[in-house]
Amino acid sequence: MQDKTDKKDHILDAAQKLFAQNGFDGTSTRSIASEANVNMAMISYYFGSKDGLYQAVLERRFDGFRQTLSDINDQDISSWDKLYQCIDIYSNRIMGDNSFHQLIHRELSLHQRSDIKDFITDNLLRNANEVKRIIVEGIENGTFRKVDPEMTVATIFGTKYYVINASVLASKLLGEDINDEKTLNESVKPRIKAHLTDLLKAHLTKP
User: Fold this and answer.
1) Which of 46, 116, 178, 192 fits a 20 to 30 Å CA distance from 40?
2) Does domain 4-61 have CATH number 1.10.357.10?
């Protein structure tokens, strides 16, 4: 069973990389099979078709992140601790996989495949609502001051969007190469964590 899971994840990793680089139409199942070093029959066996593989790539990432956020919300800890955990997970997972975000940005920028665009939008909203739960709970229990929860969530997600999807401009602004993995992990992600923590402390702390 573990071997089967590993093979599926390996194919999904290869597919995500190629879909992000070349788009859906520019990526063939043959190229994915070659990248993953598997035969095409294995892709058909696990995912049925290129469409099925594409949706599986999206579902894997969305479901994993949403479950993590849901687990944070269900913990019996303070609203501040939930928020700090959220920032940490968000910075590590969302900022740690550029190819996935390039893939999402590509799809949302295209004026086609409305079914996939709707699927992506619905899942992004569900994840955003898990973060919103933390903000709303903190306001209702008196931990946070009254703020606009939706705009607060937009501020958190907007930081990622700017840094990742405007990486050339962000690199010039930050004075660091966002597209260099070592720089991203050792410098940029800690800066983002510190910035979001300071920003939300100032924004949510009651006077």
Assistant:
1) 116
2) no
